[in-house]
Amino acid sequence: DSFQWMSRVLQAIDSIHQVGVYCLALVPANTLPKTPLGGIHISETKQRFLEGALHPCNVLMCPHTCVTNLPKPRQKQPEVGPASMIVGNLVAGKRIAQACGRDLGQLEDNDQFLYIQDVLQWRAQATPDHPLFLVLNAKGTVASTATCLQLHKRAERVAASLMGRLNTGDHVALVYPPGIDLIATFYGCLYAGCVPVTVRPPHPQNLATTLPTVKMIVEVSKSVCILTTQAIMKLLKSKEATAAVDIKSWPTVLDTDDLPRKKNSHFYKPPTPEMLAYLDFSVSTTGILAGVKMSHAATGALCRSIKLQCELYPSRQIAICLDPYCGLGLALWCLCSVYSGHQSILVPPLELESNVSVWLTAVSQYKARVTFCSYSVMEMCTKGLGSQTEALRLRNVNLSCVRTCMVVAEERPRIALTQSFSKIFKDLGLSPRAVSTTFGCRVNVAICLQGTSGPDPTTVYVDMRALRHDRVRLVERGSPHSLPLMESGKILPGVKVIIANTETKGPLGDSHLGEVWVSSPHNATGYYTVYGEEALHADHFNTKLSFGDTQTVWARTGYLGFLRRTELTDASGERHDALYVVGSLDETLELRGMRYHPIDIETSVIRSHKSIAECAVFTWTNLLVVVVELEGSEQEALDLVALVTNVVLEEHYLIVGVVVVVDPGVIPINSRGEKQRMHLRDGFLADQLDPIYVAYNM
Question: Which residue numbers delimit the AMP-binding enzyme C-terminal domain (predicted)?
Answer without folding.
Answer: 587-689
